[in-house]
Structures are given as structure tokens and as C-alpha cells.
Write a structure and sequence with these properties.
heterodimer; A: Lipocalin; four-stranded antiparallel β-sheet; 18 strands; B: alpha/beta
Chain lengths: 327, 593
């Protein structure tokens, strides 16, 4: 006859905190779902990539005739907060790993490799259209995204591994970032096990010049438009899948003023996410670009596995009390 | 085919005289009973609610509100009295079918359904030339001889069970997994594709009315809505009309309702609220998320009531469109106190049982955002039931005022009082039978099938509705109730009550309802003369109606399940209310090294 014990709802609410998954170059499905103020997430992302461009470079500068593969990990941290009553998130992510490749030039094959840390990137996302910030658990209970529109700003710091003797580096030796408008559109009920969303992130990447590219050359890249799109659907309350698309347009790169082709590429992929525990989510996805086959055309495919660990001090404390009460 | 034609011919022959008689006679009013299932005393705007019920309020504004109207403490007993005018211990509902005690089984009056030894209101109205329609919850028997069509309803679309999904035929238990519906006397194998209980019942009734409209006969419609009985199933667009409104908690909402009740004249200005039940938290000390979750249940309930009101509005509008509204008597009330007992837990709360597995499969959509969907089961609990019964004590199943008193609206041509009037006469659900027979110009027969019919226990409201008197009862008349072993008797302003512990004392308690409608002060020790007099009436009631107190009830172990009963004093203990002490700013210093 007692009123419901709120603590019983805590685990279910905590699961909602684990949807944050910062990534640098491409937005994963369910990336921009909002959560409780003060929620924290540590993502650990592991990617295996291959193609004809440096996978650590969001400009995707094509090296004609090259074959590049990489094993890249990323670790980061993100935190939800409210800004003028709107949900917001700040994140930092640091890529690291190993990339290698070979390219053929004048009948010769050149091998390159690099390892170490890439350029750390910070991200700020502020919701501008949609429900207000979730400042307490009561707000979490009532939250449904409906149609949510955010403003996103990324900035990468050019302090990662870089060598001017080769084009393949984890760091890019230039400032870059992006501005985007993440959209989450809820279709149907917002009930775990039944959620369906259409999500999109149209964004513009900008790149400063790298004036020490291949021994003093100047590398410039025009604005690059990137669109990430997802249709996501819960299969159960802890398992979801997503159909992903990716579109690049623009981003013409020039070396000492000699311009290459602009990007105009379309990619498709799929992702699955599974809530392992109330704190831990696993996602796995595959994405490949549809290539024209031309040597100058961007080619890339990528397999990604990520683990996301989320927590909130209030929720953790409530859980400790609940566990203690069972003893 | 020959048999069918023969039956049609026979039916035509039987009805023809009645039809011609009706055509010649002055036009009698249509009658619509709108019954809300577990609708609380204060849940309509006209009775102090913040819930928006403009259509029901309009009926009140056009008619009379009755503040001292009694039902029984649970649904099928009340329904049995509405439709028979006979005491429950005689008409077959001496106990609910689902709760029949071992010592009651097999005894006449305790069949668990409306027995065939009573005449029914629709049967008598039909015989007097009325069309008789029913939509909604029946709960008075399922076998072919007991369904609405067999008890006098010419057309029906009925849920035979006491509760279930509003969206489909899912029932509550493994033993009885499928709700049973009838339409025009046939058992349905499936529901209409766009079924939602409150909407479909209204659609069906409008269809029934239209099918016979223009033939000169008045109609009687028994609109026994399932709403707002739990589970709170509700279309999505009705769920979000009170978001956050109930986070303030049940105490605050009760106080607001009482204030409006006093301001409108429903209750005297010095009325006290009943105490918050001792096992409920003071909402002030609950975390926002707890208040939000519990408040959301009340949000859903409010949506249920508003949706019910909307569909009542559809019916009223339709009657206006076809020119029947002005000639229609409306009677609106809830069938018992609001529901504070956790019915779902009672049925499905024990892991390892068949019912638990049934619930896991069919009723396990527990996420708050799924509340209202098929497969969800939400009820608002005792805290909000007390709100629905403001200012009274307790709720459904108990014979405190919160279990048996309800709001009543009567409007239409039979009501000659000033529009919007409020009446405080003592009324009873069993009065409806003699009242409507009088309005219809029909009479209650002495026998049925050669057997003597039991006497009607109610009193016609005719003199009250016409404004000649303020109550159908004299000071000598009394009312009595017994269900699940809880029992009470009221005469004049005095009420003697016996309830299982810990809701009651397990002994007789005496209250003066005029001074203390919230039943806060037990006067049994102070007024032994009154106890004695009322006990004599109780004994009279027991003898007259063969009341057999049950040997088993669902409340027999309640004392062991609930916290020990303690007084509820506001702000006690102070420990949990003390706010942070803030020292004078000029005395705040950093610690010394």
C-alpha cells in the first residue's frame, strides 16, 4: 500500500543515460539523445578501416592509387548539463591507434605507417528545439524527444602525431572543426522496446591550411558538407538497430594550389546496440562508401565496435541504498 | 426460415399494441443513466474537481446536483440495485461473484449474479413501451439467461466482466484470460477493429437510438461505462492534458477540491477533510521523481474522466441534433467509491503463479511512457482515491463515506427544481427503479412468473425532483450496507459502521455525518443510546434481507499487511521536515589553520 519506491525506477532511468556515444567523424545513431543533467559517459571505440584516404582525417583527402588500413581506438568523456534550460552536452574525444598504407607511384610501391595519438576534439551540443533540459529524474520520466533540433560545434586541436614526410598521420597539423544541426525525430511511442527515430546530422566541416604538408607544401581543403542519417528502431527494450547513411559533398583539397576532385560520396551501413547492463552499452556497426571505382574516388569501409559506460552520482547513490536495503 | 418468420410475426404481434398505445399517449421522456465505473465523488467539475468535465457539468447546470447520494461499496452490488431496486442480499449480489465466501455459497441471494427472482428495470420499461438499450459493463451474470438481452435490454453491446482492457478482449487472469462481450444477445468472437471501450459504447448507443428513432417510442439507455475503472487505458492524445499538474501531491489537490466544494455549496463551509490514511506518505517529503510518477497516474485518471466526459458530450450533442435532448432525463453517478485497492497486485502479484505469468505476457508494459497502451496496467492507488472521494474517508470496498457516497446529477424534463440547484436529501441507488418507473408511467408488479417479487427498497425521487420535498426519506427511514463483511447503517444524520481492522476498529463506530462527514470522530462511547438504536435497525435489516456475514474476505489479513495504524498529524515527525539552518552571513568564517 506504500507509494511506489522511486528507487525501483532508477535502473530503468539509468539505461537512458547510456545513449551518449561521442565520435569524431561520423555520428552514430542515437548519438544526440538527451539525458539527465550531470550524466557522464565514457566511450571506448574501436574501429577497423580500409580505403584510399587517411581514415583519421575528416577531410578524407584521397591519395590516388593508395591502399590504407587502420586500427583506431578512441576514448573520451562526455557530460550532460543544461544551458538556459536547454539540454546540452560537452565532450572530448581522443583518437589513437595505428594506421598504415601503401601507394604506388611511378611503378614503385611506398609503404607508410603511423601510430600514436590523433588530434583531440572537443564538442559542444545545445538543444534549441524540443523538450527542455532534464534537470531531475522527474524530467527524465517525462522526456520524449518529439522533434529535437540541436546546434553542434566541434573543434580539433592540432597536437596529435604528425610527420611532414608522409601523408598518413593520426594528427592533421591544422585546426579544423564543424558546425552541425543534429535532428532527432521520434516516430511513435517513446517506450523502451518500441522506440523508432529518424535522425540526421547535416554539418559543415571547415579546415585551416596545413602549411607543412609533405615537407613544406600547403594543404588546403574547402568546406565539406556531411550528412549522417539514421533510421533506428528498438527490437527489445535493450536491443536496437539502425540503418545508416552517409553523404559527403565538397571538401576539395588542394596541394600548393593544385586542386583535386571534390568529394561526392554516398555510404550505407547498419548498427546494432545492446544494453549489457544498466551502465554499459555495446554497439557494433559497419559502413561502406559506394564508390565509382575511379582511383580518384573516395573508397572506404569501416567496422566499429564501441563500449559506452554511463553513470550519474544520484543514480549510483540510489542504487547503493537499494542494494543495501536488500541485505 | 419458417421458424424465424414465425418468431418475427409473433414479436410483431406482441409489440403492436404497445406501439399504438405509445403513439396515442402523451410523449414520455427518454431516460439515460450514465454510470461511471469507480468515478469518485469529487471527480466532476460540478462537484469540485479540477478535471475538466464540461459536458457533465452542463447536465448539472441544467438539472440538480445531489450531495447525499449513496451507492454500494462495490460495483456489481450497486448495479444489481439500480436494475432491480432490491437489496443485494436478496437480488443475488449478497457478495460479489469474485469474492463469494464459503458460508454464502449456494444460498439464495448470494448467487453472485442478478438472480431471476427479481424483475429488472429494463424489462419493466420495455413492457411499458420503451426501447431499452444498454452499452458498457454488465457484471451481473454471463450465462445466456443472465445476459442483458435476457434481462430486458432490446439492444446491447456489453462487457460481461467486471474489468479488462479497453482496447481488446484481454482479461486479467490466467483462469479467465478473455473478456466476454455480447451484442444484441449474442456472444462476440471478436471486437470491432477500431474498438476503444468508451468510444465504441457511445457509437453503439447512438446507432441503437438512431435505428428506432421516429417510431414514437421513448427509449431507456443504460450507459454503464467501463471508464474510469483501472487499467487506465487511454488514447495517447488524452494522456498529456494534465502534465505535472498533480506533482503537488494528493494533500494539496484534496484541499483545493474541498475549497471549491465549499465555495459552490456542495459542502458546508466548516467541512473538514478526512485524515490522510496513515500508510500514505506526506507528498511534501517525496522526491520530485516520486511525485512525478505518482502524479502521472492521476494525470491518466484525469484523462480517463475527461475522455468519458467527451463521449458523454457526443451522446448529448447527438440527442440535441435529433431533437430528443429536451425530452431526455439524465441520471449521472459513479457506481461506488473510487478504487484505492491494488486490484492488479491482488490478481497477479505472486511470482510463480499462473496469473503472474499471464500478467508477464499480457500486462507487463510498465514503462511510464507506455501507461495507457494495451498491455499496461495503471491504477492510481489509495492516495489519489482519497482525492477522488474528497472530503470523505476511505474508498471502494469500504462502508466509510468514501466507499459508498457518490455524486449524483439528475437533469431533464422530470426535474422541476431551479436549474443548477444543489440538494442534500438522502438518496440511494435503489431509488432509481421506483423513480424511473414513476417517470415512465409504469408500475412494479407484485409477481413474476407466478412467484411473488421481493419489495423495492428504494423511494421514488419524484417529490424531490418536482421540488415538493428536499429528501425522499423521513428521519425514521434508514439505509444499510454490507459487503465483504464491512457493514453500516444510517438513519438521519447518524451512521453506525463496522469495518475490518485496520481501516475500521473491528467494532462498531458511530459518526454524526452532519457534523463530521469525514468520519473523524467516533462517538460510540459517548452516545451508547444512538449505538443501541442503530443496532436495532441493523438487526432489522439483517433479518429482512437474510444478511450473512462472510466467513472469508479479502480484508481479513489486511491488518497484518499494513503498517500499524497511527494518528496522522501534519508535520510529524518534525525530523523529516526541518529545513537547512542558514547562519547569519556575518558570522560565517573560514576554518582556522
Amino acid at each position: 500500500m506504500r507509494p511506489v519506491a522511486p528507487v525501483r525506477w532508477i535502473p530503468a532511468l539509468l539505461a537512458a543515460l547510456c545513449v551518449l556515444s561521442p565520435r569524431v567523424a561520423e555520428a552514430q545513431a542515437r548519438y544526440y539523445w538527451k539525458s539527465l543533467d550531470g550524466a557522464n559517459v565514457v566511450p571506448v571505440i574501436f574501429e577497423v578501416l580500409s580505403g584510399n584516404a587517411n581514415p583519421a582525417d575528416p577531410a578524407h583527402t584521397v591519395v590516388p592509387g593508395s591502399t590504407v588500413s587502420g586500427t583506431i581506438g578512441m576514448a573520451g568523456y562526455s557530460r550532460m548539463f543544461s544551458l538556459f534550460d536547454r539540454g546540452a552536452m560537452a565532450a572530448i574525444i581522443v583518437p589513437m591507434g595505428h594506421i598504415s598504407g601503401e601507394s604506388r607511384l611511378a611503378g614503385n610501391t611506398f609503404f607508410q605507417s603511423a601510430n600514436g595519438f590523433g588530434d583531440p576534439m572537443i564538442e559542444l551540443v545545445v538543444n534549441v528545439v524540443g523538450p527542455p533540459a532534464q534537470k531531475n529524474l522527474a524530467d527524465v520520466v517525462r522526456y520524449e524527444p518529439g522533434f529535437s533540433l540541436d546546434v553542434l560545434a566541434d573543434l580539433a586541436f592540432p597536437i596529435g602525431q604528425y610527420s611532414n614526410s608522409q601523408p598518413l598521420n593520426l594528427g592533421q597539423n591544422r585546426w579544423y572543426g564543424r558546425l552541425g544541426l543534429p535532428v532527432v525525430w521520434q516516430l511513435g511511442p517513446w517506450v523502451p522496446g518500441e522506440r523508432t527515430t529518424v535522425e540526421a546530422l547535416p554539418a559543415l566541416w571547415w579546415f585551416a591550411a596545413n602549411t607543412d604538408y609533405l615537407s613544406g607544401k600547403t594543404l588546403t581543403t574547402d568546406l565539406l558538407f556531411q550528412l549522417d542519417g539514421h533510421v533506428t528502431r528498438d527490437l527489445t527494450s535493450s536491443l536496437w538497430v539502425s540503418l545508416d547513411i552517409l553523404w559527403y559533398l565538397g571538401g576539395t583539397t588542394a596541394i600548393n594550389g593544385v586542386a583535386g576532385d571534390k568529394l561526392a560520396n554516398f555510404g550505407i551501413g547498419a548498427t546494432a546496440g545492446y544494453q549489457i547492463t544498466e551502465n554499459l552499452m555495446l554497439t557494433a556497426g559497419y559502413m561502406m562508401l559506394v564508390s565509382s571505382g575511379s582511383p580518384n574516388s573516395l573508397q572506404m569501409d569501416r567496422f566499429t565496435v564501441s563500449l559506452l559506460y554511463g553513470w550519474h552520482s544520484l543514480v549510483e547513490g540510489a542504487r547503493r541504498l537499494e542494494e543495501n536495503s536488500k541485505k | 426460415m419458417r421458424t424465424f418468420v414465425g418468431l418475427v410475426g409473433l414479436a410483431a404481434g406482441l409489440t403492436a399494441p404497445a406501439m399504438s398505445l405509445a403513439a396515442d399517449a402523451p410523449r414520455r421522456p427518454n431516460i439515460v443513466i450514465i454510470l461511471g465505473d469507480d468515478l469518485g465523488y469529487s471527480d466532476m467539475g460540478a462537484f469540485g474537481s479540477e478535471i475538466k468535465t464540461p459536458n457533465l457539468d452542463a447536465l448539472a447546470a441544467n438539472g440538480t446536483r445531489f450531495t447525499n447520494f449513496y451507492t454500494h461499496a462495490s460495483c456489481s452490488p450497486t448495479r444489481s440495485m439500480i436494475l432491480s431496486g432490491v437489496d443485494t442480499h436478496v437480488n443475488g449480489l449478497g457478495n460479489m461473484d469474485e469474492m463469494m465466501a464459503p458460508n454464502q455459497r449456494g444460498i439464495p441471494g448470494y448467487e453472485g449474479h442478478l438472480n431471476t427472482r427479481v424483475a429488472t428495470l429494463p424489462q419493466l420499461l420495455r413492457d411499458s413501451g420503451y426501447h431499452t438499450y444498454m452499452v458498457g459493463k454488465w457484471h451481473l451474470g454471463k450465462s445466456p439467461d443472465l445476459i442483458p438481452a435476457a434481462r430486458g435490454f432490446e439492444r446491447d453491446f456489453s462487457l460481461l466482466d467486471g474489468a479488462g482492457s479497453y482496447w481488446d478482449m484481454t482479461n486479467l487472469s490466467a483462469a479467465s484470460p478473455k473478456s466476454i462481450y455480447t451484442e444484441d444477445g449474442k456472444y462476440l468472437s471478436a471486437l470491432p477493429s477500431d474498438f476503444y471501450a468508451t468510444k465504441t459504447y457511445t457509437d453503439k448507443l447512438i446507432g441503437f437510438i438512431d435505428a428506432n428513432h421516429g417510431d414514437g417510442k421513448p427509449f431507456f439507455a443504460y450507459v454503464a461505462h467501463q471508464a474510469p475503472h483501472d487499467p487506465y487505458h487511454l488514447p495517447r492524445d488524452w494522456r498529456s492534458r494534465h502534465v505535472g499538474e498533480y506533482d503537488k501531491g494528493w494533500d494539496a489537490v484534496r484541499q483545493e477540491r474541498l475549497k471549491r466544494q465549499i465555495a459552490s455549496g456542495i459542502l458546508p463551509k466548516d467541512t473538514d477533510l478526512s485524515e490522510r490514511m496513515w500508510f500514505l506518505s506526506d507528498p511534501v517529503v517525496l522526491a520530485p521523481v516520486a511525485r512525478a510518477l505518482l502524479g502521472k497516474k492521476m494525470e491518466l485518471y484525469a484523462g480517463m474522466v475527461e475522455n468519458l466526459d467527451f463521449h458523454v458530450g457526443r451522446l448529448v450533442d447527438h440527442l440535441k441534433q435529433i431533437g430528443e435532448y429536451d425530452n431526455t432525463v439524465f441520471i449521472v453517478f459513479g457506481d461506488n467509491g473510487a478504487e484505492g485497492t491494488d486490484l492488479f497486485a491482488m490478481i497477479s502479484g505472486s511470482p510463480g503463479t499462473l496469473n503472474y505469468l499471464f500478467a508477464a505476457q499480457n500486462w507487463s508494459k510498465t514503462h511510464p511512457n507506455a501507461w495507457g497502451d494495451p498491455g499496461s496496467y495503471v491504477a492510481y492507488g489509495p492516495m489519489w482515491a482519497q482525492v477522488s472521494m474528497t472530503p470523505f474517508s476511505q474508498y471502494k470496498g469500504w462502508v466509510a463515506e468514501g466507499g459508498i457516497r457518490n455524486a449524483l446529477i439528475v437533469s431533464g424534463p422530470a426535474v422541476k427544481r431551479v436549474k443548477g440547484d444543489i440538494n442534500h436529501g438522502v438518496m440511494h441507488a435503489a431509488d432509481i427503479m421506483p423513480t424511473l418507473l414513476e417517470i415512465a408511467g409504469a408500475s412494479y408488479p407484485k409477481t413474476q412468473g407466478g412467484q411473488a417479487l421481493p419489495p423495492l427498497i428504494g423511494k421514488s425521487w419524484g417529490p424531490v425532483l418536482s421540488g415538493k420535498v428536499e429528501s425522499p426519506r423521513t428521519e425514521a427511514d434508514y439505509l444499510a450496507w454490507e459487503i465483504f463483511g464491512n457493514h453500516a447503517v444510517r438513519q438521519g444524520d447518524w451512521k453506525l459502521r463496522w469495518e475490518w481492522k485496520p481501516f475500521g476498529k473491528g467494532e462498531w463506530e458511530l459518526f454524526n455525518l452532519k457534523d463530521d462527514p469525514a468520519e473523524r470522530k467516533d462517538l460510540a462511547a459517548a452516545r451508547p443510546d444512538k449505538v443501541k438504536a442503530l443496532l436495532a435497525l441493523w438487526d432489522d435489516y439483517v433479518r429482512a434481507n437474510n444478511v450473512i456475514l462472510p466467513s472469508r474476505t479479502i480484508f481479513e489479513t489486511l491488518e497484518g499487511q499494513l503498517p500499524k495504524r497511527t494518528p496522522v498529524d501534519a508535520g510529524y515527525p518534525p525530523l523529516i521536515y526541518k529545513k537547512q539552518f542558514v547562519p547569519p552571513q556575518d558570522m560565517v568564517v573560514e576554518p582556522k589553520p
